[in-house]
Design a protein that fits this description.
The complex is a heterotrimer of chains A (138), B (148) and C (227). By secondary structure, chain A is of the alpha+beta class. Chain A contains four helices and five strands. Chain A has a single domain, classed as Thiol Ester Dehydrase, Chain A. Chain A is elongated and about 50 Å long. Chain B has four helices and six strands, in the order ββααααββββ. Chain C has a single domain, classed as TIM Barrel (Alpha-Beta Barrel). Classes of the chains: A alpha+beta (138), B alpha+beta (148), C alpha/beta (227). Chains in contact: A-B, A-C, B-C. The interface between A and B is medium-sized, with 35 and 33 residues. Strand 2 of chain A pairs antiparallel with strand 3 of chain B, so a sheet runs across the interface.
Amino acid sequence: MKRFADINIGDTLGPSEQFVSKDNCRAFARAGGIEAPRFTDDEGARKEGLPGMILPGNMSLGLLSKLVTDWIGAEGGARLIRMSTTYRVPVQPDHKLTLHGFVTHSTPAERTAEIDVWIENEDAERLVTGTATVQFDS
Amino acid sequence: MAVEYDPALINKVFEVTDPVSVTREKIDKFCAAIGESNPLYTDDEAAKDGPYGGIVAPPSFAVMFRNGRHFFENVPRFGRRGFDAGKDVEFVAPIRPGDAITLSSHVKEIYEKTGRTGTMVFVVIRSTLKNQNNEVVAHIDHRFMNRP
Amino acid sequence: MSTTLDLHSHSDASEDSRAPVEAYLNWIRLRRSERPLDGIVLTEHRQYNRDADYRALEDKFGVMVLRASEVETNYGHVLVYGVNDDILSRFDFANIRLDAQTLIDEVERMGGVAVPCHPGRPNIGLYEHYAAKPPLENLIAVEVLNGGSRKGEDERSAELVARFGYHAVGGSDSHLVSLIGLCATRFAAEIRSIDDLVRELKTGIYEPVDFRPRRKAVAHAVAEETR
């Protein structure tokens, strides 16, 4: 179980390599009822001026949240209480993505830790950046 | 110099959606789509003994509730089409199967800046999600980007 | 004695960052072996807080904090160093349509220096604007290494430096704590204040430095005296 006292500034989450297929992307769009062409169809996405299908922003947020909840683990002891994301560059499916996280600072009075998170492509470009806050029970 | 808009827009709740039921099936589909296998969200037996006493949705499931059909008529539109530029989500309480979630939304902020894709107007919509017991489960600040 | 400064960073005073200044300084202290910085310059978007005071944090972490601003012009984004009351009354930093040439000339006249940042970036960088409009005059330096660059952007910036003979600086453009200091600028002289920085940018010897992992160095003009 994760405890606040065991957390150090500089602790890493991941890096976690992921391959999001076009079918994964479509499945997410269906699950969210957002089956716009930009999330489901290369041709339709190109008509909107995009390079091809892209991941919904919410899917990137979901993947980054999962990076944090995986780090917390299934035993509890802490929970994700805030996730803030910026979509800098469209994320395309069928590419290797790498998710990174670093514990950057903490607030002992609230037993919270702040974590930088981001999604990188093969060229080490940060496509989505964010910060997460985790609160610990003890 | 700032972008021009009617100041009365700010903070006015423009929409409260009808309740949306959370089913186990919806949570399963969400988990499958992001590759989630944490037993807290996927395994009834394991989750029963976990911190929530049963299956809950992963925190980020909160962003899957959409603003209703009145969204686009009420949100100031400065361009032909908008993009999701980012979100700031505060997860207040877990969302469980059987919950019925409503969203109430207001415009929090409007501002403009220039970026890689040109001049952009940002409209920040703040939505508060409540369950059937009137408990807040999440606050979501949604930065919605328009190109004028 | 040389000084290495990250000339471009955003804290939680900018609308798109949640990074506290204290966390930046602590991160620099912890990562000094990888990113040997003497200080950072906060360049908050479209604003300048004349009352901010970071002296207690500077003492606590042994890292210098200077303040500047990143403003938006018809030639892209520009870092303004040496912001003073004259400059603040002459320009509305919140205006995203400032005239770049006027800004450069007036800031210089009022004792500061204006440095276009991420010139190789689409729309908000000089490179694209130079394809359609005449080059700016009286430019001393541009940011040739930017920690937030996509592939090819720093290379386009380096091309401008080679073509126009600008001096080159580097900055992380960090919006996240852990990205502070990824790129920086090494000055030959000692810098202890914003006045020192403005003077060195105008007349000193300096070069961009890249602390990013897994990246190839970008060619840039060799540092030399500007005047």
